[in-house]
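Lab notebook, bench 4. The sequencing result for the construct came back, and we need a structural model before the next group meeting so we can plan mutations. Quick request posted to the team channel:

Model the 3D structure of this chain.
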Amino acid sequence: MDFTLPPAIEDVRSRIAAFVEREIMPLEADPASYDAHENIRIDLLDAMRAKARAAGLWCVQLGPESGGLGLGRVGMAACYEAMNRSIFGPAVFNSAAPDDGNMMLLEKVATPAQKTRWLEPIASGAVRSAFVMTEPHPGSGSDPSMMLTRAEKQPDGSYRIYGRKWFITGAEEAAHFILMARTSDDARKGLTAFLFHRDQPGWRILRRIPIMGPEEHGGHCELGFDGLTIPPEDVLMNEGDGLRATQIRLGPARLTHCMRWLGLAKRCVEIARAYAAERQGFGVVLAERESVQMKLGQIAMAIEIGRLLVMKAAWELDRGGLARKEISMAKIQAANTLHQAADIAIQINGARGYSRDTVLEWVYRYARQARLVDGADEVHQMVLNRFLSKEETGFWSWPVAAS
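Done. Here's the predicted structure in token form:
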């Protein structure tokens, strides 16, 4: 693999980095920049989005025909990392979850009519979206086969939805939803993906679930469905293709999480190094202490391991592979590295790190969910073991170029 970035990608990455430094990071220190759930205020976000769009830094994850920059997964890895030097960054560039994953899915599988109705408003920033899959016990979490929400087909070809979902990210602010529901008991073809708008009757938000960390816009909500009617033209792909749609969406979306988390981890190291270089104790600055040097060296290596895993997975996706094994490894590494980076940075900063004088405590609380969302560590470890059992020593084989 060639690790050099094409000049066009480096140009976008460097312009994103400069925009984050100049326009976004100064906002973090002002309490007035935050909404009630510790994210960037919506009106302020809208103003920053207008600036990002005017600068030509919008939706790097989509192709030009969909209103994006078409950088591919490798380009996304470089740019997403730069975006998330700021805790507000990804949302400004319309590259935050869950919208980015929903947009990539719709771009790949939606019909032209569905793209016009459902994708274009998200890509333009006019609306936000949510992906509706996870259910309360005993329903589906990481195992979609446990899904209980059902879609009952009607004589006119429409479907009525009944069931409950929870921890649906962004639901309170979303207008467009992608919903997974059961249409049969078939193990592989029993799930179907549907599209619906927030104004359609037959569903409601039961509650916004309080969490320990700062929240994405729209929170994490529990939803109830009591006869939501969805016409046949709002089935995404075909009846029975829900599991495939989920696989298409979740793999790349997991990887974009990793890209963003590595940017935040680097920010934590940046804050720790700056403080260690100026803080004196017992006659020396912290940066001269071997214990501090070891901590920073350890996390620098962990971040670089994460970057290499992310880039390998991105490269595999760009060349048409599924990258399931590579994404699972990247997900575990990046999630744990983010948590470790925030913890080390707080330790080096001492009471300052535990306070709200820096973004470290924000990142620390946010980081704990990284090891849970889009598959807990243990789920991805089991995935890797399945590959190991199947491939044995081939697990570590190198791809060989055609002669």
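The longest helix spans residues 242-278.
Will bring this to the meeting.
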